[in-house]
Amino acid sequence: MGYKAQFRVWRGDDESGELRDYVIEVNEGEVVLDIIHRLQATQAPDLAVRWNCKAGKCGSCSAEINGKPRLMCMTRMSTFTEDEVITVTPMRTFPVVRDLVTDVSFNYTKAREVQSFTPPPDLKPGEYRMQQVDVERSQEFRKCIECFLCQNTCHVIRDHEENKEAFSGPRFLMRVAELEMHPLDTADRRDAAQDEHGLGYCNITKCCTEVCPEHIKITDNALIPMKERVAGRRYDPVVWLGNKLFRRSSKKS
Amino acid sequence: MTAGINAPGRARIPVRSLRTDRWWLPPLITNLGLATFVIYATVRSFMGEWYWVDDYHYLTPFYSPCISESCVPGSAHFGEWIGELPGWIPMGFLALPFLLGFRLTCYYYRKAYYRSVWQSPTACAVAEPHAKYSGETRFPLILQNVHRYFFYVAGIVAVINTYDAIVAFHSPDGGFGMGLGNVILLINVIMLWAYTLSCHSCRHIAGGRLKHFSAHPVRYKLWTFVSKLNVRHMQLAWITLGTLMLTDLYVMLVASGAISDLRFV
Ligand code: SF4
Ligand code: SF4
Ligand code: FES
């Protein structure tokens, strides 16, 4: 039951570009990425698009479909009506390379800025032992496929280019939370979360959670718990007094 | 619009958003909902009457605890600690600022009003109307970090509301009595507890702050319980705005004589 769909695809580079109209055949069971591939094969051989797995696991095909940040390979054509115009653009937070391909190196820079896993110095690889309940929280965050849709949607940097310097974005604040909650990590990451990764910029408006294709509860399970940990260290006079009086190190718990 | 999506190097798309759904609807509904509550609560808090039903000992949560000599006889459950209040001070002045603070710094309400009132962002992937943004990094918004203290006080107020709901099982002859008002007060107090305990700070305090759950099995259970409630935090935030208004409205109608309480016992 094929039909002809109307597409508007952004074509251009880092200097100029425009939305171009195409009419393309759609067959049953297809996803947006199939249509983009058909467009490339039939009408626009020079169309640039990044993809790999077509199974929602490599995180390459991130784009914006009708203004919503999504994976092209996981967006079914059946979610649109046949007479709907479908607009496909590259992610609007990162510099564009060409057409639907953006330069996501911002994210790699931010990834490198997170202090790596820091196990106790006397523990050799292979000797790591931990209990399931203790790693559970961190494991949720390991489902991340690094599609950077959350980074792209976060208004802190999407709407304010100048904040890119100070803010690591939900993906990497979640990485900090993952290690902070890790049973074998010995580093105290609370100050770094606030001072180096810009946790304070996040106003917990949950757009990262809304677009995550892995349905990770980024805001509720990583960002807010991290904000609470920072509050405990920096903004809680009672915790501060307790630590002074009882010489308690809050790291041990 | 903002400098962000038009920043050099990004795809040149001269519109704020290409979203085709009604992304403006949820923030609009949120604004209407919050405004309704704020207006209702303000009017009622300053009204100064119809907050206590002497026959059945119903006290509206907006006037609890009532601790001044202005309170009508019987409504001051914990005594009259201070003299008459001028009319511009609400009789619930002791708890109200803390309850307001608890909700203002609540992680859910923050999301709600940042999106709807402040439009930062109005909706996901819709450019916000502000040129600059520093989030919660500096004064005054850095004060949101004190949320846990408001949580502690909200817990105390929930105990007081629970007490109010229990002493309200009262009949005009002095013995046990029960009416529709009791059911309403009770549902309200249960919902208030659910909202208060589902708080993100509560989740942190209950066990979220620990690194090793395996070493603290009881706190792990507590954290698991609070986590289950926490998933419903948004729903509970709205439900309690509703139950608070309904409870107060019912007490007001009965106290003013507009309706009579439906009595079961
Ligand atoms: S919740 Fe925080 S990190 Fe996530 S999109 Fe909103 S502001 Fe960005
Ligand atoms: S957290 Fe979710 S949205 Fe963000 S990069 Fe990972 S998979 Fe993508
Ligand atoms: S092609 Fe791999 S996630 Fe879409």
Please provide a written account of the structure:
The complex is a heterodimer of chains A (253) and B (265). Chain A contains ten helices and seven strands. Chain A has two domains: 100 residues, Ubiquitin-like (UB roll) (Roll), CATH 3.10.20; 148 residues, Alpha-helical ferredoxin (Fumarate Reductase Iron-sulfur Protein, Chain B, domain 2, Orthogonal Bundle), CATH 1.10.1060.10. Chain A is of the alpha+beta class. In chain A, helix 3 packs antiparallel against helix 6 and helix 6 packs across helix 9. In chain A, the strands form two sheets. Chain A has a five-stranded mixed β-sheet with strand order 2-1-5-3-4. In chain A, strands 6-7 form a two-stranded antiparallel ribbon. Chain B is an all-alpha fold and 265 residues long. Chain B has one domain. Chain B is built from eight helices and two strands. Chain B has a two-stranded antiparallel ribbon with strand order 1-2. In chain B, helix 4 runs antiparallel to helix 5. Chains A and B meet through strand 2, helix 3, helix 5, helix 8 and helix 9 of A and helix 3 and helix 6 of B. Bound molecules: iron/sulfur cluster (SF4) (2 copies) and FE2/S2 (inorganic) cluster. The site of FE2/S2 (inorganic) cluster (FES) has 12 residues of chain A, from loops.
